[in-house]
Amino acid sequence: MDPRDVRELLERVRTGELATDQALEVLQQLPFRDIGIATVDHHRALRQGVPEVIFGQGKSVDQIVAIIEEIVRVGQSVLVTRIEPDKGEAIAARVPSFQYAPLARTGKVTVKPPPERAVGPIAVVTAGTSDIPIAEEAAETLLAIGLRPDRIYDVGVAGLHRLLLRVDELRHAAAVIVIAGMEGALPSVVGGLVATPVIAVPTSIGYGAALSGFTALFSMLTSCASGVVVVNIDSGFGAAMAAHRMLPGSS
Amino acid sequence: MDPRDVRELLERVRTGELATDQALEVLQQLPFRDIGIATVDHHRALRQGVPEVIFGQGKSVDQIVAIIEEIVRVGQSVLVTRIEPDKGEAIAARVPSFQYAPLARTGKVTVKPPPERAVGPIAVVTAGTSDIPIAEEAAETLLAIGLRPDRIYDVGVAGLHRLLLRVDELRHAAAVIVIAGMEGALPSVVGGLVATPVIAVPTSIGYGAALSGFTALFSMLTSCASGVVVVNIDSGFGAAMAAHRMLPGSS
Amino acid sequence: MDPRDVRELLERVRTGELATDQALEVLQQLPFRDIGIATVDHHRALRQGVPEVIFGQGKSVDQIVAIIEEIVRVGQSVLVTRIEPDKGEAIAARVPSFQYAPLARTGKVTVKPPPERAVGPIAVVTAGTSDIPIAEEAAETLLAIGLRPDRIYDVGVAGLHRLLLRVDELRHAAAVIVIAGMEGALPSVVGGLVATPVIAVPTSIGYGAALSGFTALFSMLTSCASGVVVVNIDSGFGAAMAAHRMLPGSS
Amino acid sequence: MDPRDVRELLERVRTGELATDQALEVLQQLPFRDIGIATVDHHRALRQGVPEVIFGQGKSVDQIVAIIEEIVRVGQSVLVTRIEPDKGEAIAARVPSFQYAPLARTGKVTVKPPPERAVGPIAVVTAGTSDIPIAEEAAETLLAIGLRPDRIYDVGVAGLHRLLLRVDELRHAAAVIVIAGMEGALPSVVGGLVATPVIAVPTSIGYGAALSGFTALFSMLTSCASGVVVVNIDSGFGAAMAAHRMLPGSS
Amino acid sequence: MDPRDVRELLERVRTGELATDQALEVLQQLPFRDIGIATVDHHRALRQGVPEVIFGQGKSVDQIVAIIEEIVRVGQSVLVTRIEPDKGEAIAARVPSFQYAPLARTGKVTVKPPPERAVGPIAVVTAGTSDIPIAEEAAETLLAIGLRPDRIYDVGVAGLHRLLLRVDELRHAAAVIVIAGMEGALPSVVGGLVATPVIAVPTSIGYGAALSGFTALFSMLTSCASGVVVVNIDSGFGAAMAAHRMLPGSS
Amino acid sequence: MDPRDVRELLERVRTGELATDQALEVLQQLPFRDIGIATVDHHRALRQGVPEVIFGQGKSVDQIVAIIEEIVRVGQSVLVTRIEPDKGEAIAARVPSFQYAPLARTGKVTVKPPPERAVGPIAVVTAGTSDIPIAEEAAETLLAIGLRPDRIYDVGVAGLHRLLLRVDELRHAAAVIVIAGMEGALPSVVGGLVATPVIAVPTSIGYGAALSGFTALFSMLTSCASGVVVVNIDSGFGAAMAAHRMLPGSS
Amino acid sequence: MDPRDVRELLERVRTGELATDQALEVLQQLPFRDIGIATVDHHRALRQGVPEVIFGQGKSVDQIVAIIEEIVRVGQSVLVTRIEPDKGEAIAARVPSFQYAPLARTGKVTVKPPPERAVGPIAVVTAGTSDIPIAEEAAETLLAIGLRPDRIYDVGVAGLHRLLLRVDELRHAAAVIVIAGMEGALPSVVGGLVATPVIAVPTSIGYGAALSGFTALFSMLTSCASGVVVVNIDSGFGAAMAAHRMLPGSS
Amino acid sequence: MDPRDVRELLERVRTGELATDQALEVLQQLPFRDIGIATVDHHRALRQGVPEVIFGQGKSVDQIVAIIEEIVRVGQSVLVTRIEPDKGEAIAARVPSFQYAPLARTGKVTVKPPPERAVGPIAVVTAGTSDIPIAEEAAETLLAIGLRPDRIYDVGVAGLHRLLLRVDELRHAAAVIVIAGMEGALPSVVGGLVATPVIAVPTSIGYGAALSGFTALFSMLTSCASGVVVVNIDSGFGAAMAAHRMLPGSS
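ok -> structure tokens follow
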């Protein structure tokens, strides 16, 4: 896909170093591996500088273990998101190196630790106590990709004092992940207080008019603070990966 | 309908002061007047202590003038909401005592000024400049029912300083009407700062995810500040009438 | 935040009564307490004249007990909403002073009873039998903040007699909380009968076109009775807090 | 389609009265006429006992005139709904017997008056003045099919007196068409007062949470008064046709 | 409420037959009975000629038994809708005269059988096998109010033959209740085939784009067959009550 | 229904070969069979060249077994969709020839194998591993109607290499069924790569803004690749039947 | 992209016929042309066997003319969809060979006529007269790609006779495009009558519950006739292109 | 607000350099200016390093000119978004230094050019020609804040070649703004190709199932490419401001 690779390949064909059929085979042997239930893409980790990630929801323990083992086999680390505690324990029982974080509902096998990155902490801010599981999913993902979370929890806009006293801390962060359900007002306020990236995560906390997170989602998208960006409802993982793309050392 | 009235009527029947048929007639001659296009309810003004109000949207100039004249004929004041400027001018041309407020899109004929009410001002707060027409509808309605608006405009949450410097003013109001479009976050913040009634008005300002005011509406309904109440989208009139119900001297 | 506090602080700095660093520390030692899972805001109770309230949904028994104990430790009362019976019993087993109301799904610890308030009763009206749990949440909250509920249940508009015979009672209330699911028509009718505040609570009762409470919600927002205000679906708590803001003695 | 017709046809084939091919031709010569832009179904009028009806919206004056002329040619009456005034006048200029009703936005050519029907009047009730155009569409349709409308306008639930004084009139109607926008509460109240058919018509009157008539629609569908039926938003025509089906003499 | 009753009462007051206070008391002793959890309205049965109906969903066995007993105590029949089998059996164990119909999820106590009504059968038509429970709710309700159901099941539009062969039967019905989920096309086809009332019931059968019955609901409301009326999703009971209102002998 | 059949019937009546009443009976004895719970349409299989299909969701084991037996009795094969494993096993216990495919949640009884069809394979492509159950429902249905699935799983657009390397395979398919949840982008990309029919199946995989499959559905409907067609959410069966209609040998 | 092209290119590099840099350049000189406002893809026409198509909505006359000229310059035909009459005339004034079809709102320049295709006609069926513009867009597109439309208009399900008499015609079509607004029931009925491909096009005809075409869309997606496929609302073009993919001679 | 400012102020009060009242006044004289219609916040520009921005939609020419003049008066640059051409020209006529960009519908007065920033270009990518206005709003905003746009237009996923040939260019950008309407698939594909920040902008291009941009919005939020972030529909401005926050030199 990358023109430099194509050029090099062509060059090797031209010099006779590689036969036409071999070249075609190389093009077809890009680093995928079909293990029946999935086309594991070992290239992605290299390409984006992150451990392989498995979306655990809707996959069986057998499937997850099979994918983990294939990834670990080639020497990569792996992060699994959205695994409920019983599933997490079942996987740990079969893959001893698997570390499960119950609050975040994530687990990982660290084959090689992520490279250190020369950036400040990422503030992970929640409006309420109920938003903490999503915040922890973000924090665990940040750790897995070599970033450092700074947790600032339960500082929603109905008690503005709590937030204002921590403005300094927010301003020293390399980026701010703001997690809120219900009316989702917190990112607008934070966005007006800091100049760094603000990644808003709506959560499904609330009832009735909270619309399972859509009120917070729309609220954040139409925020009066400019430059606030948004990821999917309850996607702590997505927010962390967005921070990863924004900060030096991601590629 | 009111048991006391029924009792008095029964008593007058019992004493022979009133014949049965007359009593029945009285019951049927409650103060309505059918003017063809509307059943004008002169009783409502008495019942709720407010001038008669006409919802102008979707009514013709002829219809509005006819209803105004019927109301004024019996000595009541009248307020008309939701009239576009051209219609407002056409009415004024035919009813000289009609005063039109273009920003609020309201007009009124004041036959007798509303009674003075011994309450503090009602803060009318907007998040942005674009919310001002709705705020003016609220302010004009407040004036028509004898309440005093205190306008605090363009103090949205993305520039928190502007709001915080006026907290004292908010705390001295008898009630606070908070008007905001887009993400509708302002009532949550105001609700955390004052203990008095907070009436939130979502506006249809914004685009895309603002959903013509529904994002602000849902945001306000699921506000993390407790006891905030909400009226319909763009209903400055509804907010003023809600304040009217809440404050002494409404009945 | 309050200018008077800032002025006093400045004055004490000016007079040397307080060192600069001490003043800063005071500003930072506002009455919050970070207990790990929550930033408990002891100031809020003072600020709004109510017991601390915990939204129980989505919190574990451990978390709720920890927050209750922190609040009680500083001598405040506490109300917990949205706790299912099994959770309620588990908390009561660990906090003996905890009183659980199963119909309302609320519980409380009363350290000091709320101050008496010189206002009339708050009518709590339901359209049907199925709306009673929400009504009880409102009633329990009213009691916790020193207001007196007057329960008027099962008087929906399809049998108008039942409502009309209790109009007197409605007219003597300081405010009326009207709770209805399905088509949510009751607040419009009540709003036309009384001049006092009408706080409408849509409930999720009904099926199909009832849209889990949204039909009642939109119905109430677009009520033809002016000045009716609305809170979130199923939010008996929100309605009681709104009454609290509207009535004398709230601050 | 009707087995009796098939049997008769078969019998005539059996007796040699009709050749096989002729029989097939008869089956294919059912009373349709393709006039290019439409397949005019003259059978429908016979089948359902009503004049032919043209839905005028989105059709040009040319198209409407062509269809009217085809219908009149075979001696049927015709009713056209949803024609704006300018179109109505243009049609009248070309079809002199065309009578246009501007408020209802309907027009008709009466070739033979509808048969008299031995039923009481149909009450056509509106909640507000703005609902009158839809009510007039219902009334005009009722007249076109031989039913008698009894107009009861502007008696919405916020002023209950107006409705209650006309209960007798409602009870004497053969059926009640109830037309309301905004919260659509009127059919629930009427449904509790009368035992006759209640046909609810939601209108698109209102703004914001009125959702262009969907709030009234859902409200009416989930009405707490049993046996209320509903037609499409703004469909005065549909309500009249529903009454037609319900009353003696429709077939 | 009824003017004749008021007139008679007034007359008795005038003749001294009744004291003023007694008259007031009579007005207040209309046939309601408050049994704590419900305001049982014995008048309704009289007023609408039907047994009392209890909406069973969301009520406990205790509550239902208490309401049944109060109704039976005054000599009325009672129908309970929306009771799951386990609840139905529990009620039957405590009220021996209670007859439960599991497919329809309804139960009844027949104190006096409904009066015979001189009308033809009501066709109860379903598009598929899965719509049968809703059809049975309609059928059971029809029986409880003295109407006769004619069941025509599983004749949806994808196999038109099945429907066309039963057109005669449809045409002999006094009214047709058409029950369909998924795309809800059946009422449009039936409405084109018969001239009698067509009451459409959308069901929540289907998945994805079936939208839990809303696609069928909207489909039926915007039916191209004129005069089709619609009730709430899955409301077999509502359809039967609508038929009741439409047919002779309902009051 | 088919004119040729009617003509033949008429001809036999004309020649006296068939009595009128017999002819009518024949018309009424089209190959349906009412087995109480369903009107089994044996004609449909003949008419569309497929085994009978039962939609298993919401039907009891008893009902499904009864319908299977009726179909098998007349010598047809049968396919049952949407049966959960426990139900599938229960049916297999009672109908020994019933073969259950747990991943696809389908089962079948093959009385006579489907005719061989002279067309290429049908590519069944999924974006992710979680879409496989829907793909298997499509594959099982294809097999039941004599078409050959070519499974290409887990080749979503975020890792474009995986898809591009299999373009040849896609281009050799007679039609491509593309199954994707979340943002549903895969059919747009595939539609740009192949000229054969592309049948898009949205799945309910994803959370939050995935809207239970509606985001993928709308995405596919508004695809920028022209000529892509769409079936209902999660309808692997519908996609296979669509392929059946498109390919030679379907009738 | 196509492995055969890559293999040939590699072979030519290997034999020295092509220098490495030349090969790379070839890979980059695929037949696109950037004309500033658009990346015109001349390859697409070749790839899919159709004239270039321009989506006219939202493009200026200048932009459309520029793109047409670029396409015609290389000897391709071009079809433009969604152009209102005034725009169509403006383009024709500047491009004399441009033929505009006002009913379909399409225009085309035919440089070389499409190849003849050995397939039967495509039935283009509408439920009503108002659906004709969408049907004409389909018909014009079919003609532009060498397919033959058979127009069957105004045969909606409320008058079933009209449709049934044309079943033979439907059965002789190679595919059936069914276009319907309002309740969108027609494709379900047609799908039960024919075994060939049924492509359903929902239209935005109707009001209220028709939801601008979404009711018809969802209705068609959840059709009880299996194998019906759906394209976007009002997309006559999409339906024709879908037919193109399904029929022999498309690539 | 900033603790350092508070500390410094306190210090100056302590040293007597500043009187208490003066300090309070300073706190209240933060750089806002109330010009009647707006609270112009000169601090924001300083705080976030950008020119003042006015949201032009819904503001009159008079209002915009007044706000521009106030901003320019204090020596700041200003950018106005969402101004239609006629309004843009009217402003330019009154403010000669005002430069209007019609395609982007933005205008600006540059008092001092933005500081140069040492970052690479920002790729601004569109799926189609119709998305260009939103792309230009982004590009104009980038220029106003000192960033360099690299425009890559009309490279949607249905013609994948066009995109793949420009992958190198995408990989050299500091961030990629991806703008797409309809199914919004482009950001998922781009997100899989580059490791840098991907800011997705849904546009309201398309019809029917495109849902005025919501399908693209939800598609982007649930993208299978991780770390993609999203801004409001049609918000080219929001995307540029997001890039501003992400890149060095923003504060």
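Residues 61-73 of chain C form the longest helix (13 residues).
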